[in-house]
Amino acid sequence: MKHVLAAAAVILPLTMGSQALAHATFAESEVVQGQTARLTLRVPHGCGDEATLRVRIQIPEGLIAAQPMVKAGWTLETVTGPYENTYELRGKTVTEGVREIIWSGELPSKFYDEFVFRARVTDRLPAGEMVYIPAIQECANGAERWIEIPAAGQDSHDLQDPAPGVMVVAPDAHGDEH
Ligand SMILES: [Cu+2]
User: Which of 7, 50, 102, 120 is buried deepest, with most CB atoms within 10 A?
Assistant: First the structure.
């Protein structure tokens, strides 16, 4: 009996961790304020056994000048819309930009793929806090909507469909542009 409990104590966290990893998440864990971030959405499964036919990423306020990476075999669309705030980018005032990115194609559920975009991280996003970037997988007869944002103090692992997120960090001392 003791061995079973010991085994359970080991397996449980592993399955919980791998369960979280089995959702749509970003390969990157952090982005730097004032710099351009490259973000890689990892898609490890479809809607149940159904293939993913469309991947949508919704760009939250504070991430500007979002630019998707083209993907062989997939068509790419962007939806431009206004920002809630006005931003300065390379000496220009910016009031709107890409607010949604849509890749259309086919990813069988048993295969894995990545969807990449880059965006400028503005100071509107506080350092030391997560930024959540909702992502939706559309399939022939359903969807996986990774859009739930944890309340303050809530663990995203407790959510059914957690929005993928990354931590915002302050630029390092010498403020290099990467
Ligand atoms: Cu999953």
Answer: 120
